[in-house]
Amino acid sequence: MTNTVGHLIGGERVLTGGRTQPVYNPSTGEVCGAVELASVETVEQAIANAAAAYPAWRNTPPAKRAQVMFRFKMLLEENADEICELISTEHGKVLHDARGELQRGIENVEFACGIPQLLKGEHSKNAGPDIDSWSEFQPLGVVAGITPFNFPAMVPLWMWPAAVACGNTFVLKPSERDPSSVLKIAELALEAGLPKGVLNVVNGDKEAVDTLLHSSTVQAVSFVGSTPIAEYIYSEAAKNGKRCQALGGAKNHSVLMPDTDLENAVNAMMGAAYGSCGERCMALSVAVTVGDEIADKLVASLKEQIAGLKVGSGLDNSNEMGPLITADAQKKVKGYIDAGVEQGAELVVDGRDLVVPGHENGYFVGATLFDKVTPDMSIYTDEIFGPVLAVVRVDSLEEAIKLINDHEYGNGTCIFTRDGEAARYFTDNILVGMVGVNVPLPVPVSYHSFGGWKRSLFGDLSAYGPDAVRFYTRRKTITQRWPSSGVREGVVYSFPS
Amino acid sequence: MTNTVGHLIGGERVLTGGRTQPVYNPSTGEVCGAVELASVETVEQAIANAAAAYPAWRNTPPAKRAQVMFRFKMLLEENADEICELISTEHGKVLHDARGELQRGIENVEFACGIPQLLKGEHSKNAGPDIDSWSEFQPLGVVAGITPFNFPAMVPLWMWPAAVACGNTFVLKPSERDPSSVLKIAELALEAGLPKGVLNVVNGDKEAVDTLLHSSTVQAVSFVGSTPIAEYIYSEAAKNGKRCQALGGAKNHSVLMPDTDLENAVNAMMGAAYGSCGERCMALSVAVTVGDEIADKLVASLKEQIAGLKVGSGLDNSNEMGPLITADAQKKVKGYIDAGVEQGAELVVDGRDLVVPGHENGYFVGATLFDKVTPDMSIYTDEIFGPVLAVVRVDSLEEAIKLINDHEYGNGTCIFTRDGEAARYFTDNILVGMVGVNVPLPVPVSYHSFGGWKRSLFGDLSAYGPDAVRFYTRRKTITQRWPSSGVREGVVYSFPS
Amino acid sequence: MTNTVGHLIGGERVLTGGRTQPVYNPSTGEVCGAVELASVETVEQAIANAAAAYPAWRNTPPAKRAQVMFRFKMLLEENADEICELISTEHGKVLHDARGELQRGIENVEFACGIPQLLKGEHSKNAGPDIDSWSEFQPLGVVAGITPFNFPAMVPLWMWPAAVACGNTFVLKPSERDPSSVLKIAELALEAGLPKGVLNVVNGDKEAVDTLLHSSTVQAVSFVGSTPIAEYIYSEAAKNGKRCQALGGAKNHSVLMPDTDLENAVNAMMGAAYGSCGERCMALSVAVTVGDEIADKLVASLKEQIAGLKVGSGLDNSNEMGPLITADAQKKVKGYIDAGVEQGAELVVDGRDLVVPGHENGYFVGATLFDKVTPDMSIYTDEIFGPVLAVVRVDSLEEAIKLINDHEYGNGTCIFTRDGEAARYFTDNILVGMVGVNVPLPVPVSYHSFGGWKRSLFGDLSAYGPDAVRFYTRRKTITQRWPSSGVREGVVYSFPS
Amino acid sequence: MTNTVGHLIGGERVLTGGRTQPVYNPSTGEVCGAVELASVETVEQAIANAAAAYPAWRNTPPAKRAQVMFRFKMLLEENADEICELISTEHGKVLHDARGELQRGIENVEFACGIPQLLKGEHSKNAGPDIDSWSEFQPLGVVAGITPFNFPAMVPLWMWPAAVACGNTFVLKPSERDPSSVLKIAELALEAGLPKGVLNVVNGDKEAVDTLLHSSTVQAVSFVGSTPIAEYIYSEAAKNGKRCQALGGAKNHSVLMPDTDLENAVNAMMGAAYGSCGERCMALSVAVTVGDEIADKLVASLKEQIAGLKVGSGLDNSNEMGPLITADAQKKVKGYIDAGVEQGAELVVDGRDLVVPGHENGYFVGATLFDKVTPDMSIYTDEIFGPVLAVVRVDSLEEAIKLINDHEYGNGTCIFTRDGEAARYFTDNILVGMVGVNVPLPVPVSYHSFGGWKRSLFGDLSAYGPDAVRFYTRRKTITQRWPSSGVREGVVYSFPS
Predict the structure, then answer these.
(1) Which of A119, A178, C231, D260 is the most buried (most CB within 10 A)?
(2) Contact (Cβ atoms closer than 8 angstroms) between residue A167 and residue A60
(3) CA distance B390 to B432
(4) What are the coiled-coil residue ranges (chains A, B, C, D) (predicted)?
(5) D117-133 burial, b if ≥16 CB within 10 A, otherwise e?
(6) Is D1 exposed, middle or buried (0-12, 13-18, 19+ CB in 10 A)?
(7) Is residue D484 a part of any domain in this protein?
(8) Residue C23 forms beta bridges with which residues?
(9) Do both A345 and A300 map to the same domain?
(10) What would the pLDDT profile of C301-340 be if each residue is shown by its tens digit?
(11) Mutation for C interface: D460, D469, D473, most C CBs within 10 A
(12) Based on the structure, what is the number of domains in chain D?
């Protein structure tokens, strides 16, 4: 018998007896639980609870709200092992990778601890004669977050801690594929002192999403997922008058200049291409080599490293790479590899036939390396979301930049070089939101903000960091002048008391 | 024979021989010119010119871009009389009111002069060991602005000076009803040194608007107008993946507390209700009186003041109020007054029959005052955009706040009181973006930002001021680590030169 | 046999067998311990330890330094009872007051947790063509703090958490009168992970202070104490080329307008005048009444409240006021009361003869109230640092402002009124650094900064909050241009690897 | 008969008939005027005028104060030729160099135009329950500036535009050696609308300086000059309780790495070492070469360039270098060259015997180059303030950094390299306030701040840019709570009006 994961509404775990679907352990291919899919009514109940909790929470001083975040950080650290096991079991990523994810999430909680400082508005004395003017950044009300399977702990922590620290209440719809860690984390927030109803979690599918999008109570929507869904969310939210930030897909290129420190680059790229089985929106899936010399060395070196890569169950911390999330994903990734071969790329390492002993039904695909990939191939154009790295050979940095700028996505990119000018030229001219210089996964730290360009992000404000404070608040500008009332002039003795 | 106003594309005045429509002088009701309505091709030509001018302008250092703004400010001041006459002739507002509008616009140019300071990104040393991270706020590319008839000079100056100071190039579609001042101003920008193609102006109607909305080159759209159009713009822009800020309608309430300084309040309200014939999105159209005592005094005092109000041609600077923009507007406003009477409001002053001698065909409606208006009447629910002030009587501040918060709009509001606590309670709890305390028109100064709440603004960033810099730029975050290259270690003598 | 408190140097408790002096429990007048007074050599040893710890700590990423602060906050909360008992035993303040002090100190630690955000420098792309420029705020090196007896836990926490979060190492010389809590707190910092030598504590007297002032290693000095010593510290530090912030004495006035909410004001003033026996640099020691009506009511009401004030041992939490710090302080305060009577003030409540049963040797003085005090009296001109409140009667707000602006100190002040205009006029025109409106002790919250004007603060930056980050860092501005190196142009294939 | 330059006090040119001294044209060695040296009384009169102008100016809204700066910028541009001729005549620098100086000064005026934005304080809603807190940055009152001869136009413009934009009034004591341009500039400020008395200029010597330092009216002092005087100013100002920023001397090193782009570096260094005859606190006077290969090339290349350097009268714009400021300066610089030879440095190019035909009495010294200079020589330890460049040869970047960090000054420095890691390592570890990467004179742009480290700056805030706004303002923090007054509750009808 499996355990059914439900919702967290008004501070209580809720199961309504509605539709469910199974949850799998991707390392074994076995069902490890079930998740209930929220109906319109259930989502509306969550929204109603958030709305009810809003007035009191909004009026709680920011410094008090921060106290919840301080305690929450400590509880996350104390419960890290349990959370990571939940992540690994349902997602498949190796425990140490789950720990890295959680750590990044905790850093977002740390940022939220600074909310009294972050919420400061701007004050102008004498904007006019005896007139003062200032801005306040007030919470929006009820806001919603919709998050993907690949970072079940981290991406929700990008959103709701900042949102509730700003004084909002929240309805989170996480991925239904790996729902357990997010609920555990939400319970820790309650334990840390978050009042009931401030954070609500509903599991569900399109029905739940659409209920959030069409609710007139929900003021804003944050989304992370694929680009087609991001576009849907963004345009539906706009149609309903909401503010929205919708983060979509990626195809992240690294550029290797002739002066690349190759050892450093190869180590960096192994993790960035194959970590979490490539299921990261910041995964490096393309290596653009400038000149054949570096290309040849790179391919040789990667091939050698891949041979030693340890693939297996996420729950075995000695592994370096785990399975994909579902059997469908496994099939889709293998299909891309097939297509790459058909379309003429040189398959240097083939991960299609990998079998992990004892985990024969796990959704594994081995690390795969293509050389001589061209921009017309589907393994280049599409976000594969699997452990497939494509080497594209070019002759100059200009050519590399053109390639990247022509791609529909603009999430992350990276250049390997020792040369100041090449790095500066690249970072300046590249149409990508997050750029690394000798840093393969340029995910901004929690006190900066996360956001791609082009079809990788819809909206004007990025996720987490300073932008989150702006996204989750509404500017109010007050202009004030006081008429003289006689208190400080006139006949003060006769003032009525 | 009338003069036909065309477009400004690539630094040149352009007339294509396409569709035109007449431009009227509302003070006389006579045609004073014509305006050409841009076709899809004309708008696309403007976009193409903006795109062509972008790379060089984007790479011009911000401090150089600011020099254009410094000179532009001076030219606007030197040419103020001519600009104001153009505004007044085509819009109808009195010259001194046009001057006020222009002055506010110039202040936005002054703000843009500070762009080197405003564009600063955040730099973190040691975001990790030997890793630095910083943000850059880079321009978007080609952006568009769509602006209303009521502030033909000011609202465009809310948008494009900030946008181009940030390094963007711009296509402006102003109102086709009063197109001349905006073109004059654009020419002054060229004279100030703005390179050709950086700012383009196309006159037009829905065809022009839709071309901008559907262009894949246009990265962002700023709009000011009515709420239904704002909603259309916002959802269409989102559907096309653009960022958008769309400012819509308003119904601005002032609250008069029992301790109101009445003389101050009445003076303030006369200008705020009837200035520019009520055709302002920040016009005060509702006075909410707390207690009958202040209501009675207010109505009596306003009635007296209205009796002395000088209404007439905008070109006669001794007037205090001019005509409405069109015959249609005149008809619509009179219709609202009819409805107010029918629905039971007490018509204290009736402006329907006003005739201005010598300007019998001008689109005048006199200052109108209703008392005992209730929330169900159309003169309360709708934005009239005419010189009609409605007094609503309530018994408490709580009731006043509820009334305002229940209205669909949330642009501006104001409280008149001498009491610190009442003001603080009001500004805190009111769901309105711009709040005045004893300030009737709480338009934020140029170094703050302009934005309503609820259905008065769609988007997450407000107009002009600091928000404009964020709206017209895209965050790029760079994370940098340098591998040791031997330059400062190893055998330095043998380094290749 | 008493316990001798020594120093904390390089992470170890140190006793050198040097000079000592007794530590008293002011509630009983009995010796409760001894404190060693550091010699030149001992202070130099502390400085040397700080210098040795500096390079590694400076290079620790700010986010890692913040982790120490997060843990430190939790440890302070867990050990609050013990710390407060140490404070109360040696200082005499009532336990709940010690708890308040500690809480304020913890809030400074919370602020330091946000150091990654607070240390951000400003980055300008294209300061010139292809030239970038940015600022970094780098630590100073070894910095020193010298703190007073009246807040043994809080004032050190104003200083060193911000300083070490910025990357500095620290030598603290706290008050030798109540040395135990500060050492306990320093040990908790070590437990939280602060590396040895980053924070050093030396107890001592002028010899220790002068050693710090003359050390060429010490880069900056923060001081809180009396004005004559502040002046000495400030000029000596300057003579030795150091940066310095030296906070001195105060005489804080409250102004009661005719429309004062009296009950609120009296409650507020009881705590602000008599809390901690008046030994606070933010204590309210003067009440300026505008008009005799409010004066008469105030004096009557205070007299009644004072009658019920519970004075006794600091270790009994049911008390509201404890003893003064020393027998000397007791004698000095009584001397001021004598002088007030001689100089003609009206002594409404006389605290000179108070005896606390069972604590006959404690350094108690009862709450004392003078009416009709004039600006020439020593109870008005001097900072008494005891439970003495002086009422000065004036006829207008202008007169009240002149009185306050003419006083040599300008630390804190407060106005009681309901009137927006009176409050704004007062806060604008008063030459005082921290101003309350209906808030009797306007100590800024930890994310703002603390600083008086006139002879209450010497230096340009205030204590704690944002200013502390500037005070404890040095701006470095980097301007960078990269010459083209051929990597991205030229013959890329032949580049040497 | 020569013209005597006096003072500008209360908006009027003032000559008191007091002590005078001659002003020379350094290009000819002839007297070109005289300057009156202010007595104590004259300086006190200037201070009194500044004090009288303060209240009205302080209450002028920042946006109005900015208008003066906008017009002042334009007037400076329109009068640039005249100003530069005055600079060149009295200082000797070549006209184009004077133009560069003036341009930099104008950029400080541009920065001051943004004062409404720059003065914004921080506002916290709900710092506690219903308690708001915010900071205001208020002007100090009368502040003083004392400026050096080498940038007679620019350095005063670093100070007073920011100071007066902040609302202060100012007394400037410029260098008595080249007094004319500063007075011309001050008159343009009046023409731009600066009220009389807001800016006062007194010429003088130590008597004037000490009067400023001892005045109880003067709140702050900004100084730029030599280090011994800076120390005197800093400690005297502190002794008198003032805030002070005192910028002193420099010995700016450039480091040439083996991968230096030599052509770029040599061009850069010619201007940086010999421009303005080396009389700049940012002049590059030491070249540290890493490895003999780059050293040999550098010396050969500089020697060749020096041979073509055109030296002559400042008023002839075809020249590249002019004379020193005085005969004494000429003698002193030649003495240093003598000492360099005696102490064993290799004199590659000797400028001692330079004669400029037609200007035989001008204070010329030719560009001088020493190789193989060691740290013990006086040409290395001292700031020569003349056209003398010393090459010091080292073997590694570490050695170069140690050399620089051991020098008493820390104003500016620069590294020439193409290597990202070397640049980052250098900028991180160097104890210098302004650091260039391939930028020889890393003077921060006007919207950053100027400040050295070590004995090059005394104080905690740098000159101009954001720091100037902090230096010229005092933080006031207001904490506000409103008691309920019955206006919005209770029986509103009976409220007294």
Answers:
(1) A178
(2) yes
(3) 19
(4) none
(5) bbbbbbbbbbbeebbbb
(6) exposed
(7) no
(8) C33
(9) yes
(10) 999 999 999 999 999 999 999 999 999 999 999 999 999 9
(11) D460
(12) 2
Q: Any chain D CB within 8 A of the CB of C232?
A: no
Instruction: Report which residue type is found at C327.
Output: A
Among candidate residues C221, D66, C468, C152, the one with its CA nearest the CA of residue B106: D66
Are B288 and B340 within one domain?
A: yes
Does C158 lie at the interface with D, CB-CB under 8 angstroms?
A: no
Give the pair of three-digit tokens for residue D155: 């350095």
Which domain, by its residues, includes D285?
A: 252-437
C336, C384 in Cβ contact below 8 A? yes
* Signed CA dihedral, C169, C173, C179, C181: sign only: negative
Q: Give the sign of the dihedral formed by CA D325, CA D329, CA D330, CA D333.
A: negative
C-alpha pair distances (Å), A354 with each of A96, D346, D488: 22, 71, 74
**Phi, psi at C320, each rounded to 5°:** -110, -20
**Is residue A256 in some structural domain?**
yes
Q: Is C281 a catalytic residue?
A: yes
pLDDT of residue C484: 75
| Best CA proximity match to B147, nearest among B163, B115, B171 | B171
Residues B139 and B274 in one domain: no
Q: Are C218 and C243 in contact (CB under 8 A)?
A: no
- The catalytic residue positions of B are 281
Whether residue A377 contacts residue A344, with contact meaning beta carbons closer than 8 Å, is answered with: yes
Domain with residue C93: its CATH number is 3.40.605.10
Interface test with A, best of D124, D421, D474, D495 (most A CBs within 10 A): D124
Domain CATH for C309 = 3.40.309.10
**Cα(D191)–Cα(D185) distance, integer angstroms:** 10
CB of A110 less than 8 A from some CB of C: yes
Tell me the percentage of chain D whose pLDDT exceeds 90: 96
Give the model confidence (pLDDT) of D411-435 as tens digits: 999 999 999 999 999 999 999 999 9
Residue C414 in domain: yes
Do C256 and C240 belong to one domain? no
Selecting from D119, D128, D420 the residue whose C-beta is nearest the C-beta of A420 gives: D420
- In a domain? residue A140: yes
pLDDT digits (tens, 9 = 90+) for B171-226: 999 999 999 999 999 999 999 999 999 999 999 999 999 999 999 999 999 999 99
CB-closest option in B136, B417, B419 to C123? B136
The Cα–Cα gap between C63 and C113 comes to 8
Say yes or no: B258 and B228 in one domain. no
Helix (H, G, I), strand (E, B) or coil at B146: strand
Q: Could you report the per-residue pLDDT of A170-219, keeping only the tens digit for each?
A: 999 999 999 999 999 999 999 999 999 999 999 999 999 999 999 999 99
Residue C228, min C-alpha distance to chain A (Å): 34
Which chains form contacts with chain C, at 3 or more CB pairs under 8 Å? A, B, D
CB proximity C492 to A under 8 Å: yes
Q: How far, in Å, CA of B72 to CA of B153, rounded?
A: 14
Prediction pTM value: 0.96
Given a contact cutoff of 8 angstroms between Cβ atoms, the answer to whether C50 and C215 are in contact is no
Helices (H), strands (E): how many in chain C?
16, 23
User: D24 Cβ partners below 8 Å, 6+ apart?
Assistant: D30, D31, D32, D90, D177, D326
Q: Mention every residue, 6+ apart, whose C-beta is less than 8 A from residue B174.
A: B147, B152, B156, B182, B201, B203
Q: Between β-strands A30-36 and D169-173, what pairing exists: parallel, antiparallel or unpaired?
A: unpaired
Closest Cβ opposite residue A136 in set D62, D125, D135: D125
Q: What is the biggest distance separating any 2 CA atoms in chain D, rounded to whole angstroms?
A: 96
- Same domain as D335, residue D313: yes
Question: Within this chain, do residues D186 and D327 fall inside the same structural domain, yes or no?
Answer: no
Say if residue D416 is in the same domain as residue D465.
no
